Amino acid sequence: MKAFEYATALSPASARDLVADRGAYLAGGNDLLGRLKEYIESPEILVNIKSLPGLDQIERGQNFWTIGSLVTVARIEQDAEIRSAFPGLHDAAAEIASPQIRNVATVGGNLAQHSRCWYYRQRDVQCLKKNGDLCYARNSDNRYHSLFSGNDCISPVVSSLATAFAALDATAVVLRNGEEQRWSMAQLYADAWKMRLAHNSLQPGDLVLRVEIPANRPRSVYLQVSDKHTFDWALVSCAAAADYVDGKLVRPRVALGSISPVPHQVEAANDFLEGKALDDPTVATAADMILAGAHPLDHNAYKVPMAHVLIRRALLKLKG
Amino acid sequence: MPAWPTNNKYISQSTIRVDAVAKVTGRARYSSDIQAEGWLYGMILRSQWPAADISSVDLEPARKIPGIKAAVTVKEGSFTVRYYGEEIAAVAGTTKQACLDALRAIVVKASPHDQFVVKEEDARQPDSAPVWQGSPNASKPRVRETGNVDSAFPECAAVIEGFYSTPIQIHNPMETHGSTVSWNDEGVTSWASTQGISSVRDGLAGALSLDQSQVRVITDFMGGGFGAKFGAGVEGVLAARLSREAKAPVRLMLTRFDQALAVGNRPSSFQKIRIGALADGTLHAFEMENYGTAGIGAGGDSGGGGGGANIPAPYLYKVPNARVNQWSVAVNAGSSRAFRAPGNPPASFGMESAMDDLALKLGMDPLELRLKNDSNKIRQHEYRLGAKKIGWKEKYRPPGSSSGVVKTGIGCAAAAWPAGGGTRSTQGEAQISPDGSIEFRIGVQDIGTGTKTVIAVVAAELLGLKPSQITVRVGDTNYPAGPGSGGSTTCASVSPTVYDICSNALSQLQTLSGIPDARGDNWFAACKKLGVSPLTVHGQWQPGLSADHAGGVQFAEVAVDTETGLVTVLKVVGVHDCGLIIDRLTLESQINGGIIMGMGYALYEERVMDDLSGVMLNPNFETYKVPGISDVPEIEVVLVNMPERGVIGIGEPSTVPTAGAIANAVANAIGVRVTSLPITPAKVLAALGKVPPAMKS
User: Fold this and answer.
1) A302: nearest CB among B48, B603, B691
2) I need a labelling partner for B528 at 20 to 30 A (CA). Which of A8, A246, B17, B675 fits?
């Protein structure tokens, strides 16, 4: 990696000032250090944000819970109250990487991580996302890539937490230019849908402070399929969340990861599921709606049936 | 004739590795841990192009980087690179970062070729871009025929045809390739992670124009080798040249990235097989066309066997009428080297898959078809043992007939390994001190298989001592020469050698001490009579105590989720023979490792080359997937002890049949066959007909 300055920030404002437009925030560093070592990026300064006060808290509220961006993935996985309130979030955290990585990985870092596309991460390939002029994946080996995209780049979002948060309709609170902005998961990744260079909607200097999760979906599920049983990226992931009252879905939401640059959500399908009982035909119809318009390529068409079954299984699992 | 004792206290029993504590506490210093006085980091600049003409390499900017003490090019003048990752230059410096900066500072003037070829199917085409100018990428087929295949097929009651393929597999030992080399006026010392200290010494001496006696190679502990770690290697020679220029020791250990590109792999195979049997199941006709790639060419440093793409066929079965047509294709990618049972895992996968397909066509139980056609008595016994352990009779059902979404199935396959015998030139010595302590010195290396423990166990048994009373020193070319660790030969080389040393020690002690039997309780009294000077006894490999040809069979039970395509291996039973068992623990460990590696081959591992850019897409453990502990099933190792055969090595056969057994179990579970390894969820869903066609953009 290239030499860089290093500073520890004690307040969000000073972090912002230090990072300016030439640096990067450092928390767990799992993703960032990989980018640095492969010379994908070379920020001039790394600003350690691990000492920012208050961002490592999990707060249980009446209407919503707040999870600070410095809370580790391991804590999400191990917190008994989270497990009982948001089992889907627990399961998403438990699927991430390895115990060693989960111990240092943070919620903010997981949400802000960059593409894992193997062309993007290849040190000697200048792909579209690195300002090259060709999406190699689109034209060559796209086995791990998206079924949906709003631009020429087909690298998918791989944040497991984003998938789970999207189904829970969680909000990311982002500090931008000294102001707190509240973004849905759709908004957090909207730029990646539109723009090939974007991994999410965060601009230089933007800092994820916390995530707020509404407490009105007591049932939630997260499922993923990987080539291996653990310590492997999802080929497809699916989260579903809802309340289930008198045998009917209330506020149901479904989101998928690894098939689109954004957590893949179809509001029409969520609307369709509202008030429905969970049975095979209903979940199959929902899956059809969610995957309508998928654009399978030469090597990733298997993701269509895989996503379809995960949607069906996740929804049926909401029954408990 | 010498003979192994019976009723043993240590031989064929379980002894914990003599270096177990050192290894688990971190006290053991592996080659990559060596910190020679004043050592420097060494790193290699590699080709970023799949094919390019290099007109010049300017090292001066690298030398100006603070901390850089040496920089060398691999070749002089202009030259051609033929694959992504080929070595171009190397630097040595005081920090890793200095070396990284220096590699980026080197100016390489290159004209990348417009055309290159990285995929086997492309390289088959006559108009594919030649890897070697002036010669076609596809080699001339080698055809071999016995009997009359054309007239035999019509005589068969059942004939099947299949196309079975296996990917390039990367060795990926825990410790990467590399060494620390110190080259000063007295000569060269190399602390190498190697399977062959002698071959590294000879290779370095040759490459550096030194006398072999001026080169010493030391390997105290090394973190695994599977056939690719024999010679000095480009990286070893570069480390030496850097050391000479820097006048300091240079540690040049490859990174995972380097390791994936340039130091060997298992060739791929694309096997078109037609096989037929008579109505009673007797194999009658066989035909195979196979090709694969060994990269730009079968690689150097192949020590333990060929790195070529040919495979044995029809593997361990005898078919009276057989025609085999094999060739290889060159591609712009790193060369193959010998890899744990070269040729055998792909051969086993193809043939054992075809056997199951044929059994289905014949309406026979696949185990019966094997018993009918495998004349080897040991394997017949092993099949019957293994079938009982896995519950074949109760569990075998017609393919695809288990109910539910998650379907279970079982399968089996066999291994035949022709090597495993001893290296006749093996020598060793022991120094016996008057206080009764004894130190064995053999110029062999323990590559993690437990060679030191084997020496201690054999010596303890023969001398009537405990293994903990035996000091074992290996891994130094200053000791009497031992074998390279390839072909599963190490155990059968050192055990008879230790036998000879012990026999000589006992007879000399008898003469010197006057005590008729110096073993056991008499040992210390006999040694005391040596007076003040230790006794050094030599020995060498003796015939009659070892053999070759080890075999084995494996059974696998799997569960396949037919909606997600995920394969879970539930259980593997490995029944293996290797003559006289020396130490059960290290033997079981070898077989466990072989099965886990075979499982990676079956389900996860694959080198992925990109035909647009010519680079390898997965030179890391993120997307080159190896089994993790949660993927590993229950493994039951069943050992067939055959003392009458003498000692035979086991390292290789244990990894041969796993992929075939798992593939057959998957086919048995879901009722269709995934014909190419690795068996990924994507391929399972495709085999089940669940994957929609791609949309054209």
Assistant:
1) B691
2) B17
